[in-house]
Specification:
It contains 8 helices and 3 strands; from the N terminus they run αααααβββααα. It is mainly alpha-helical. The chain has 2 domains: 64 residues, Fe,Mn superoxide dismutase (SOD) domain (Helix Hairpins, Orthogonal Bundle); 104 residues, Iron/manganese superoxide dismutase, C-terminal domain (minor pseudopilin epsh fold, 3-Layer(bab) Sandwich). The chain has a 3-stranded antiparallel sheet with strand order 2-1-3. The structure holds fe (ii) ion.
Length: 202
Amino acid sequence: MIQSNLPYDYDALEPYVSEKTLKFHYDKHHKGYVDKLNKLIVGTEYADLSLEELISRARGEAKIDILNNAQQAWNHAFLWESMAASGEMSPDGRIKELIEHSFGDVATFKERFRTAALTLFGSGWVWLVQDGDELRILPTGNADSPVGTHLTPLLVLDVWEHAYYLDYQNERARYVDAFLNKLINWKFAASNLREVRASKAA
Ligand code: FE2
């Protein structure tokens, strides 16, 4: 049985994400995916797996319905942790250095992330991921997720309309700007970084 959890109150991200939006998003969407997933796996060999194991197995076996609902369950749990209205407003330490190494500076990272979020057609997610000693911005369509791949997710933005329509209607840009400038939990993103072993000179 997979559980869902919202790590803060429904009004914790006000005024950038309203209590009404967060209630709908968590109660109707996130929990909806988790409930559907539990119905799909009950009594099957998937029933006792962790969410990550379940995603890897469903991906390998092309169980698309299980995979989609499991990824949406994982992506939403990761989304809640990626945001905090009282979070760090800017990256520092190692994650800042990696952003500067990969994008030049924090402003350029934000601009590229913004463009990726605004040009993603339809529903999906925009991720900051670690790929070895590089950071990359990764847009994924619908339920797709880098979890269980060689990429390490650091933070994510949900660009499905259900994430922002009540607060921003069709103005995805205002929602993306609020995320980039007011909501990112940089402490969480930094906590996901993996150590990279320096390659030895030949
Ligand atoms: Fe969502």
